[in-house]
Design brief:
41% helix, binds iron/sulfur cluster, 4-stranded antiparallel β-sheet, alpha+beta, Immunoglobulin-like, 5-stranded antiparallel β-sheet, 530 residues
Length: 530
């Protein structure tokens, strides 16, 4: 055997010794996976039941608040707007019923946002994604758009049929009517938003007569487009692909958080032919595989596949399945709000501690019904360390804000000492300092604010522009809800320079409301005067 032949034989043997892995490239040039899968349309069926009714209620309340709030009036007197909730950007004020927030009080808004964040943590750790399922604007508007769609095109089967039907005048009319109403809702949504930023009745007239500012039309256009696209066209895709919340909230759930759960420990093995199974001596679960839960799901998922990111916990599948259980004469709750700890306990019961496959007979009593050993949610589980911490933090922020709100001053003074020159030596030997004094009248009524000197014995003051003699105090009128800036000269006679304590205070008072504020200032004198 030649050397070449020996090498070839040895190479062949080595190749055969290498194990071949059973794998296939899924992204080859000829079989590249698409980056974006086309959307499969979802045609949610109308659900009915307690959770659906609760969702109707939430929908009416939230939409009512959103659309009607700008039209509520609140009498603040002749010097302030009478809109109950108003973000007055031009005058940099935020009005919320009896509360008025100035720009320097923005921490109240920051505090509210912090409370909203902690509140969301609290709700999620307790009842899961209740925000997503009931109150999120995306959920509410999709629900509203679905109401319109059902009213025009019919329920699930009719809509599927219409969607598959060839183009016709009837189809065009239905589709046009639906999209027209969607656009009107979207315009109303964008319109309602701008009413929060100006006097709603006047702005309405301005918009209708094409006299509003361009920014109002642009805002309405943007919000109309987003409402129509997100609520009418994209629907569940916004929740699944665009919203970060489903990803974040997983960190807030624990084994005692309530989530919508398919209780496979009593539902499996599922069967559409319970009688046949019984005749064959097979045990079957409560699920009759009717797909009612799938048909109502607005996210197009099957809750029986377990917890999924797409599930917004709207609980419509619970309503659908409860309806089926009622018809079958079985206990409700095959799909229910349940905690992971209860689910695990029941699963252990149905699988004999995980040693066997699910046998629903293990969770049933003689003669039907669920065994007393089955774990159910108890309200006590809401009260646990995590929820106490969230509630404590939420309450603390709320109480601090409430205290700050109830004790805040509506009269403030800020003073800026002239830096150049720091003082002026007058011909009679006295020394004069200049100050810019800002008086904030934070109530919607005119006030006469008394500005006085406290300390600096012998000094007098003069307010530039006010026809008042030099004195230790001066009355300064300030317009309602305004800041007034005045120049004040403080003069110290020459014979007081050596004994003067150069620190003193500007005291501002409103004698009518007994409100006051103080600013500590200093008085500059030439070196060597003391
Ligand atoms: S699975 Fe049920 S709770 Fe989840 S989104 Fe669908 S219908 Fe709502
Ligand atoms: S609605 Fe209930 S019974 Fe019907 S498929 Fe869903 S889980 Fe099973």
């Amino acid at each position: 055997m030649t050397l070449a032949t020996e090498n070839a034989a040895s190479s062949t043997a080595s190749r055969e010794a290498v194990e071949r892995i059973d794998a296939e490239a899924v992204n080859t040039a000829g079989k590249r996976q698409p980056l974006y899968a086309p959307r499969k349309k979802i045609f949610p069926k109308r659900a009915s039941g307690q959770f659906r009714r609760f969702k109707w209620l939430i929908m009416f309340v939230t939409l009512g608040i959103y659309y009607l709030t700008p039209w509520l009036r609140w009498d603040r007197g002749p010097y302030a707007p009478d809109q109950a909730v108003l973000v007055d950007l031009a005058n940099r004020r935020f009005y919320f019923f009896f509360i008025e927030i100035w720009p320097q009080e923005f921490f109240y808004i920051a505090g509210l946002l912090v409370m909203a964040g902690i509140g969301l943590f609290l709700i999620t750790s307790t009842v899961g994604r209740a925000w997503c399922g009931y109150t999120c604007p995306q959920t509410v508007w999709v629900d509203l758009f679905l109401v319109v769609e059902r009213a025009i095109e019919g329920d699930r089967n009719a809509r599927i049929k219409l969607d598959a039907a060839p183009f016709s005048a009837g189809k065009l009319a239905k589709r046009s009517a639906k999209h027209l109403i969607w656009v009107l809702i979207a315009v109303a949504t964008g319109g309602a938003w701008v009413f929060y930023f100006a006097d709603a009745p006047s702005l309405f007239v301005d918009i209708a007569t094409a006299q509003a500012a361009p920014v109002a039309y642009m805002t309405i256009a943007v919000l109309t487009a987003t409402t129509y696209v997100f609520g009418g066209l994209m629907r569940e895709q916004v929740c699944t692909y665009m919203c970060p919340w489903p990803r974040i909230q997983a960190a807030m759930l624990d084994e005692n958080s309530l989530t919508v759960t398919y209780n496979d420990w009593r539902g499996e093995p599922r069967s559409r032919h319970a009688k046949k199974a019984a005749a064959e001596g097979r045990t079957v679960g409560d699920c009759v595989d009717c797909n009612a839960c799938v048909a109502v799901c607005p996210m197009g998922i099957d809750i029986r596949d377990g917890q999924q990111l797409e599930c917004i916990t709207c609980a419509l599948c619970i309503d659908a399945c409860d309806g089926v259980m009622d018809k079958l004469g079985r206990e409700r709750g095959l799909i229910s709000y349940a905690t992971l700890s209860d689910y695990n306990a029941n699963m252990a019961l149905a699988t004999a501690g995980g040693t066997e496959t699910i046998n629903p007979d293990r969770v049933r009593r003689e003669g039907g019904g669920l065994s007393d050993k089955v774990a159910h949610f108890h309200w006590r589980k809401i009260f646990r360390p995590r929820t106490f911490v969230y509630f404590g933090a939420w309450s603390l922020v709320g109480l601090v804000m409430l205290y700050a709100l109830l004790t805040r001053d509506r009269l403030e003074v800020n003073v800026l000492h002239d830096r150049n020159p720091q003082y002026v030596l007058l011909s009679d030997g006295s020394v004069r300092n200049g100050y810019t004094v800002k008086l904030l009248n934070m109530i919607p009524e005119p006030r006469v604010i008394l500005v006085s000197l406290e300390g600096l014995t012998g000094a007098t003051m003069n307010v530039v522009g006010l026809d008042q003699p030099d004195d230790r105090s001066a009355a300064v009128p300030v317009d309602p809800d305004r800041l007034r800036e005045v120049r004040i000269f403080v003069t110290l006679p020459a014979d007081r320079l050596s004994e003067a304590d150069t620190s003193f205070r500007f005291v501002v008072e409103d004698k009518a409301s007994f409100e006051s504020d103080v600013y500590r200032a200093s008085f500059n004198i030439p070196e060597g005067s003391r």
